[in-house]
Each structure stands twice: as C-alpha cells, then as structure tokens.
Design brief:
Helix content is 29%, strand content 20%. The chain is of the alpha+beta class.
C-alpha cells in the first residue's frame, strides 16, 4: 500500500514512534483483513480499530487521501463489512427476527457451523459463512426506502449480561461503523435448501434495522445524570457510548433519506457528511486553518483565530422527534420491560426538521478540572431558523453553548435553544473524527431541565461554511 505523506506536525508529534513496529502492525492489519477467517478478525478487532484510527488521523485532508482509499478498498468487501455489524443492535435485530420462526438453538447451531466459511472476494453477493448475514449500506441507497408499516407487537427481548470480550467487540464494531459512515440500514440472512444447512432458514430473510435503531434512540431509560443525557456511557466519565452513537447515526440517516427522496428536488447542504466511507473523520478535515491554530495565540488576534474548534460560521442541523404521545406510550405505558430487557422495535414515523444555525465565538477560557486539558473551552452564541420545512416557527431561536474536550480527548458540544429569553432545549453531542473534523456532530436534544418524561431525540449538525451569510441550498 501507499500511505499519505505525514505532515510536519505528525512527524514532530511522533518522534519517538518505533516505525519498524508500525510497519509490522500495518502489514499484519492488511493480511488480517485479507484473511477469509471472520472469527480471526473479531478476535483482533482491537488491532483493526487501532490501525483504522491511526490511518484516519494521518489521512490527507485535500480530498485525495491514499489512506482513506486504502481503508475503503479493504473494508468494502463482503467479508470485511461484517466487522461493522457486531454491535448489540445488529445482534438484537438478528435474534429477534430469527427467533420468530426458529429456536435459539437452531440459530446458535447455524452460527457455529458457518463461522469460518466467509468469502473475501465478493462485494455485493454474500459468501457462504457468518458474513452471509449480509449488510447493505451503499446498495440500499439505490433501492426504494423500506415501507413504514405496522407489524405485530413484539415482546421485550432479554439481553444476557455480556462477557467483557463480547462487550468490547460490540463497542469496537459500533465505533468502526461510525467511522466508516454510510450507515448500514438492512441485513440479509441468506437461506439454503442444502442438506448441509438444515438449520438455516429456507428462504432469505431481510431485516430493516431502522425500527431497532429507533427503539434504542428513544428509550428514555438511557438518559441519566451519569450519561449527561448525551451519547456517553453511564459512569459519568464522558466516555463515548459508541453503540448509542451508532443508533443515532443510523436513524438520522434513515429519516434524512426518506425525507429528501420524497420532498427535496435538490440541495447538497441537506446531504449528511457521513455518506462517503471514512471521509470527514480526520482532524482538521474542515480545512478551516492550519493545525497550528491549536497553539496559544497572542491576545491581539481576532477571537475566531484563537478558537481551535472552528465554531464560527454556518451549520446545518437536523432534529428528529416522535409525536409526544407516541414517545410517552413507548416509554411509560403498561407492560413495560423489566431492567435488563429491551423495548420492542418500533416503526412509528418521526418528524424531521432541517435548521440553519449561525454561530459566533464569544469567549475562550481555560479548560476546567473535568475537561480535557489540551484545548480551552470555547463559548459561542448565534441564531437558528428553519430550512425545511420552511415555516416551522419552533426552529427559530437564539443559540448559545460551549465546545470542549472530554478527559478522553473527544470533542464535546453543548447547545441551548433560547426562546424569548428562556432556555428551552439542550443538546449534548460529540464530534466524530475530533477537532474540526468535517463529519460533523452527533448526539441528543432534550428538555433543558432534564425531564425524565421527555421529550428527547437525536440530532446532528455539520458545518457548511465559515461565511455566516451563506445561503443554504435545498428546494421543495
């Protein structure tokens, strides 16, 4: 393979790196992804994730990255796309679908007998192994969106307490899916009439994943003081919960595609930045300013040039929500699942709003005790108004908020929507790819008083331009 040439900063920051070990690990990474053993890849998912992140961190941001092209070639094959499909959401969707017609023992037998049968050469036609639980990401965009429909009410599914290794695999797989982008919206489990696969379903089973992502996103039990009501784990550490983030990305992508396919004649600003594999998850891929912007600046410079996060400018925001009656019924009606059980997948249609947000940096202060210390805390203010639908008065508000690093180095955004001088909505989000990454920001919006009864829902925003007067394209 041929890598992107590292920047001067990258070389300086890695002066103590053992480059022989780096090359050895890179060769092992390539061989591993070229292997036909799906099980081996899961066992080494830590190494795979680490190498993917290293290649993305040093990728060129000029639009012609050799690193990204290399990663795309490796991951896009059917044998490798399966490593993006091992979060608990995919496991849940597969189990609940197969158990409607088969016993768990039959499914377990199917997995056991086919784990090493994967083919590494097929991009669209599944092979004969576990990766035959076929994930369609890019291809789903070429077909009609799945119909929104009713469907029988399903019982809550008990999720056994995972082992540490299983839990780690799920989190790493979700993280890789978030970095890859192009959210996988459908699984296909191929059937077989062969006597060698008597326990496999006789005909193909297609599983639409959006009902499962929607259920996970709108389960209000996951919002707590420990999670900050954002895409974080429960322990208050501000570590990213990648399985939550994955579900947010999947349901927003689904809703955006449904809306734009039905109503939008054109409008590139409405297309989310995760629609190309691995693009935009490299720091400074916004190309706003050189990386030296993170160093201390003399106070005489304009405040925007002292901002390491690139806040000021025009952003596109998308917000989704359930009708409040649907949200309340889903979370608080009779027959709710016990702790340790999941709520059923739901096909309920959501509302979607595209909102134009204009932001301006107002203050920069030293990081607090609970923040990552590498960068300061940046305060901003601004305003928002509706893009589509164009007459939504609830999208018109003042905006204020902060950007900071978490202790683990993730970029955390907090925003408040202010109506008539009163804060009403709050959001907590993380920026995929790090500082000034163009992939954008994913998280949750919710009541600013942290009301346990909601409302709450998924949100994302991505930067369009530094120009605060930029017009947004998108016509109904």
């Amino acid at each position: 393979m041929q890598d992107d040439e590292p920047s001067k900063d990258a070389i300086a920051n890695n002066a103590d790196v053992d480059w022989k070990a780096e090359l050895r690990d890179l060769v092992r990474f390539q061989k591993m992804l070229s292997s036909s053993s799906y099980e081996l890849k899961l066992q080494d998912l830590i190494l795979i994730t680490d190498r993917v992140q290293r290649l993305l961190k040093t990728a060129s941001v000029d639009g012609c990255s050799l690193n990204i092209a290399f990663l795309h070639r490796l991951i896009r094959t059917q044998n490798n796309i399966g490593i993006l499909c091992n979060s608990s959401l995919f496991e849940w969707a597969t189990n609940i679908t197969l158990t409607s017609s088969e016993s768990h023992s039959q499914y377990d037998s199917y997995l056991d007998q086919s784990v090493d049968d994967a083919s590494s050469t097929q991009d669209s036609t599944p092979g004969d192994g576990f990766s035959r639980i076929f994930a369609s990401g890019e291809s789903i965009r070429k077909s009609k969106d799945p119909e929104r429909g009713g469907g029988a009410v399903r019982k809550a599914i008990h999720v056994p307490h995972p082992t540490r290794l299983q839990d780690q695999i799920r989190r790493l797989s979700a993280r890789l899916h978030c970095l890859y982008g192009v959210p996988i919206q459908r699984l296909r489990i191929p059937g077989s009439n062969s006597s060698l696969h008597q326990r496999r379903p006789c005909s193909d089973i297609n599983i639409d994943l959006h009902p499962f992502a929607r259920s996970k996103v709108y389960d209000l039990r996951q919002h707590s003081e420990g999670t900050l009501w954002g895409p974080f784990v429960e322990d208050g550490s501000q570590k990213v919960d990648w399985e939550k983030t994955e579900a947010i990305m999947m349901i927003l992508d689904y809703n955006i595609r449904v809306f734009t396919n039905k109503y939008v004649t054109h409008g590139s600003d409405l297309i989310p930045p995760w629609d190309r594999p691995f693009v935009g998850v490299t720091p400074y891929s916004l190309n706003l300013m050189p990386s030296e912007a993170v160093t201390e600046r003399p106070p005489r410079l304009p405040i925007d040039l002292q901002d390491p996060y690139g806040v000021s400018g025009t952003w596109m925001r998308v917000v989704c929500f359930l009708d409040y009656r649907e949200l309340f019924t889903f979370n608080f009606s009779e027959g709710q699942p016990e702790p340790g059980q999941l709520r059923p997948p739901i096909d309920t249609e959501e509302a979607i709003r595209f909102i134009i947000v204009k932001l301006q940096v107002t203050e920069i202060e030293k990081a607090g005790e609970k923040d990552g210390q590498a960068l300061p805390v940046v305060h901003f203010k601004g305003s928002s108004y509706p893009a589509l639908p164009p007459m939504d008065v609830n999208a018109t508000s003042k905006i204020r908020g902060t950007v900071r690093l978490t202790p683990g180095g993730e970029v955390r955004w907090t925003t408040f929507s202010v109506f008539h001088g009163e804060e009403k909505w709050r959001s907590e989000s993380i920026q995929l790819g790090g500082v000034q990454a163009s992939r954008g920001v994913l998280g949750y919006w919710f009541d600013k008083d942290f009301d346990e009864y909601g409302p709450a829902g998924p949100t994302a925003f991505w930067k369009i331009t530094n120009d605060p007067d930029h017009g947004v394209t998108g016509d109904l």
